[in-house]
Amino acid sequence: MVSLTYIGNQFTIYGGYLILLTGILGNGINILIFLSKNTYRTTPCTFYFLIASIHNIIYITLSIITRTMSIGYGIDPTRTSVIWCKIRQFLIVTVSLIALTCSCLATIDQFLVTSRSVNYRRCSNIKWAHQIVLIVIIIWCLHGIPVVLFRNISPITNTCVNTNAIYGIYTSIYILGLLCAIPVLIMLIFGYLTYRNIRYTRMLAEQRIDRQFTKMVFIQVILLVICIVPYGINNTYNLITSNVLKDANRLENENFALAILSFISYFYYAVC
């Protein structure tokens, strides 16, 4: 009988190849489109999407290739190199947050640019967008410093693990909060406000200004709820049950669920 572990591993390997190809092509096309026209390069929303696409490629390439090499071919440098153990996790944490934040900023920008208020529309400014993205990158890089400090190779399991119990608790909280709950709330709230602006502003409705980017924002909200939220809930479950004694069958089921939900979470970064 084929075990769930084997199925999960095969799913990760071959599904990972598919997502990697899709993500590089999809985000690569986005980058080319956003850089192709001067009007796109001077629009805050497209600038946010551009930065998000760049970090999406970095995230899925780093995450999927290293995970596939480890599961499929037994090649895992994080077991032998402390530096790579720290750097890999730092990049994964930081890059994913930058990509999500830029998606949220694009949603907020669509609310501003479709507003009937002149003062709100003035806030949609490319110079401000450049400064905001720089601040975001600095903040999330600083946020990733504890990863570098507390990530290490366990002498018992010979795997790259967190060595600080308190930060381990925070990790599950940040996955549910910063990666799931907060982005979903921001995108839902400002997505709804954008929809209301377009609906109540007749000129925007007739001229279809920024409709394409507004649709992209709504698609991102849906994908975020479907792809990222289940992964966050699963991590919260693992935190709550971390002290529960589990038999081999339950551990196998949980590891299988983690493999599937991780795969689904990658899909968000591949198509957004």
From TrEMBL:
<keyword id="KW-0807">Transducer</keyword>
<feature type="transmembrane region" description="Helical">
    <location>
        <begin position="90"/>
        <end position="112"/>
    </location>
</feature>
<dbReference type="InterPro" id="IPR017452">
    <property type="entry name" value="GPCR_Rhodpsn_7TM"/>
</dbReference>
<dbReference type="InterPro" id="IPR000276">
    <property type="entry name" value="GPCR_Rhodpsn"/>
</dbReference>
<dbReference type="GO" id="GO:0005886">
    <property type="term" value="C:plasma membrane"/>
</dbReference>
<feature type="transmembrane region" description="Helical">
    <location>
        <begin position="253"/>
        <end position="271"/>
    </location>
</feature>
<keyword id="KW-0325">Glycoprotein</keyword>
<feature type="transmembrane region" description="Helical">
    <location>
        <begin position="132"/>
        <end position="153"/>
    </location>
</feature>
<protein>
    <recommendedName>
        <fullName>G-protein coupled receptors family 1 profile domain-containing protein</fullName>
    </recommendedName>
</protein>
<dbReference type="Pfam" id="PF00001">
    <property type="entry name" value="7tm_1"/>
</dbReference>
<keyword id="KW-1003">Cell membrane</keyword>
<feature type="transmembrane region" description="Helical">
    <location>
        <begin position="12"/>
        <end position="35"/>
    </location>
</feature>
<keyword id="KW-0675">Receptor</keyword>
<feature type="transmembrane region" description="Helical">
    <location>
        <begin position="47"/>
        <end position="70"/>
    </location>
</feature>
<keyword id="KW-0812">Transmembrane</keyword>
<keyword id="KW-1133">Transmembrane helix</keyword>
<feature type="transmembrane region" description="Helical">
    <location>
        <begin position="216"/>
        <end position="233"/>
    </location>
</feature>
<feature type="domain" description="G-protein coupled receptors family 1 profile">
    <location>
        <begin position="26"/>
        <end position="272"/>
    </location>
</feature>
<dbReference type="GO" id="GO:0004930">
    <property type="term" value="F:G protein-coupled receptor activity"/>
</dbReference>
<feature type="transmembrane region" description="Helical">
    <location>
        <begin position="173"/>
        <end position="195"/>
    </location>
</feature>
<keyword id="KW-0297">G-protein coupled receptor</keyword>
<keyword id="KW-0472">Membrane</keyword>
